């Protein structure tokens, strides 16, 4: 409210200056000015007065709305719609408050005062979720422009999901059996001692490091209660483990369990994919498959240091509002088509492959985000995910992962698509981005990340060298989709910010 008032005051002052310039003419204006110019001055004066009144009116309406909607955040997210001319105009004039980068998270003061719910949220829509775990190995050949990429030496981690199975996996039923990674012998294998250890973990803080890209960061502000309650599980591949061993002190317990500070290291053997980015999505999205006893989990990317007590986070993001799935909204984008545009511009993945994925989504009816959608955004900030592991949430995670397995590893795009396909039954809490930024401190990666595929501009580049660039165990859907989506029109994208 204060901010609003000062904006309008500033506006008045600015307006007065302009008016004064007209009302108190300087010496340049002599009395024998022609009538026409005096008339013109009057007209301009009128124009300014009307303009200022109009702006004041808009500000008043805005203020009234903010005041009447109890939460200004909900209000702004509801109207902060880039299609609205008034909003765009106010924004370009600098009259809308800029969203803050960080804001305080409204957590309770005392972790000891948090009441943990006695029972799980009951599973109503999906009661029994089963996973396909054995499939006869098929021919792992990707037909690609007359050539083939073959790797028949291993079963695929993501399985051989047909397009019909994919379609059916989105149809909710009380008992469902779906693909969800972890096909037998497909890779991502835990050691038996770690399997034993995680069986006792009901409350999990999980993180992951792949390809030696980060080193573990110790979380801070963890209360004694949370230290007892939570397992802190850091999932790493062999390459990262070897890097960590060299770089930090790894402590071994009497069972041979590996620890770095509070983190228990969980080494995954046999990476399921060629691309480290895709491997990293296994613990992040399929947390419930690696840690099947977890009732609650908080995922945090490996480059981050958690600085909020995890029990306070569960209270804030799940229990207080009776939510079961919480994720932050993206700072800049609400539509997956805008996000895809930004990914291409920042060369985060092969541009032609991103195009194929979103053209498939467009072809399958995915609309760009608009205020009439049920979620405040289609694009999440996926580096922090807070989940109760209900059957429906686990299903959502499986379906989200299946998209990552089939198409590109850019999971912000597939997240929005899975939301769209699952429909109203799947509920989630998308919390403000400024709170998200207060959950962690960001650390630098150990090196610049760049894989060759990120720089691919044209599909022809894959043709030139079909070994190496095309992955042999993931992303098949991009090349096997039954419809030629080349000519699908994508919704127009307006670039709203330099940073985005
Ligand atoms: C096939 O996958 C196996 C297991 O990851 C790997 O060792 C092998 O190099 C791959 N072969 C080709 C041709 O990519
Ligand atoms: C649920 O699955 C059963 C058995 O496959 C089927 O008969 C039924 O129609 C399905 N229900 C819905 C709502 O799709
Ligand atoms: C670990 O690696 C980081 C960056 O890669 C470096 O700054 C740090 O000095 C290393 N620590 C040890 C103990 O080698
Ligand atoms: C992280 O990297 C940036 C730029 O590469 C550098 O300016 C900054 O000092 C680094 N921070 C730390 C903590 O090493
Ligand atoms: C094709 O890619 C492989 C693996 O990246 C590389 O070793 C080989 O030199 C490339 N061949 C050509 C002709 O570019
Ligand atoms: C897909 O359609 C485009 C034009 O719409 C065409 O140029 C291209 O050859 C087609 N691709 C295949 C594999 O049929």
From TrEMBL:
Q: Give residue ranges for domain TOD1/MUCI70 glycosyltransferase-like.
A: 151-445
Claim: Membrane is one of the keywords in the record: yes
Keywords annotated in UniProt? Membrane, Transmembrane, Transmembrane helix
Cross-referenced InterPro entries, in alphabetical order? Answer: TOD1_MUCI70 (IPR006852), TOD1_MUCI70_glycTrfase_dom (IPR048354)
Q: Which domain of life is it from?
A: Eukaryota
Q: Which residue stretches, if any, does this entry annotate as coiled coil? A: none
Segments crossing the lipid bilayer = 43-67
This protein is called what?
A: TOD1/MUCI70 glycosyltransferase-like domain-containing protein
Source species:
Coptis chinensis
